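Researcher: Good morning. I'm working through a list of sequences from a screen, and I'd like to move beyond sequence-only analysis. For each chain I'm collecting a predicted structure so we can compare shapes side by side. This is the next one on the list. No need for commentary yet; just the structure.
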Amino acid sequence: MLAISTDFGATLAHWKKELNASYPMLSDHMRTVSEQYGVLIKQLGLSNRATFVIDKDGKIVNIQEGNEAIDPTGADEACSRLAHRKSQ
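Model: Good morning. Structure tokens for this chain:
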């Protein structure tokens, strides 16, 4: 798991410490990744909150955007389905 944000690195370092996050937080301050994944809100220069579950082959298997992305349940379920497929 990793987080990507349009915030600058210093801001992300603060949030990582504040949240006691164990996963990497990467800065997309140039908005390149946000634009490539279709979540950039150009008028605001920000990305929409989004969660992508990507399998080992690089295929996006689940996307949640906006308020849905706040609750990790959908992403957790998608990861569980991937793990189940892998074990078969």
